[in-house]
Design a protein that fits this description.
By secondary structure, the protein is mainly beta. Helices cover 0% and strands 35% of the residues. A five-stranded antiparallel sheet has the order 2-12-5-7-6, with no helix packed on it. The protein has a three-stranded antiparallel sheet with strand order 1-4-8, with no helix packed on it. The chain has a two-stranded antiparallel sheet with strand order 3-11. Strand 9 and strand 10 form a beta hairpin.
Length: 161
């Protein structure tokens, strides 16, 4: 009788844990702009996989008057707690997002005609200087957080996204 033989498979499979986010937006074109009027424009990002992720987002603001540039600061938008503006102009969430967690982009304020709001049309605008509409475009991105240190200013793991 011979001794049992242990066989080893020389092939191995290495997989990443997977990254997937869901972007939920409550954005719409803002039309019929009136100085000082407040609007509710918000979004959230949910980690839908079972591994923590780091998030970053870019925000582009387009107006009907293409010669105007507009910033979130001018719209009095306040990023929610935990967001950091990176050197590259993108916003990074400072902590890993746990599986199932839902992170909001902007702080929400209340008591504007009984409704919540996140953005305010600049009061210095007039009917002549205000654009006809504003469009916010938010592009979220995520990378795996496990085994990677957080480096928000120039992180090589974001390349190729």
């Amino acid at each position: 009788m011979s001794a049992p033989v242990l066989k080893a498979d020389s092939r191995g499979t290495i997989t990443t844990s997977g990254v997937e986010i869901a972007f939920s937006e409550q954005f719409s074109d803002i039309k019929n702009l009136e100085p000082g009027v407040r609007y509710y424009q918000n979004a959230s990002i949910k980690n839908t996989k079972q591994t923590p992720v780091y998030l970053r987002v870019s925000v582009e603001i387009q107006t009907s008057n293409e010669t105007d540039s507009l910033s979130l600061k001018e719209l009095q938008a306040h990023w929610g707690t935990g967001w950091i503006l990176g050197e590259d102009g993108m916003y990074y969430y400072s902590q890993p997002i746990a599986p199932g967690a839902d992170i909001r982009l902007f702080d929400t304020f209340s008591n504007y005609k009984g409704r919540p709001y996140t953005l305010t049309i600049p009061t210095q605008w007039t009917q002549e200087t205000a654009p006809d509409s504003i469009l916010l475009t938010v592009t979220p991105q995520a990378v795996q957080a496990e085994n990677f240190p957080a480096q928000f200013q120039s992180w090589p793991y974001w390349t190729g996204l």
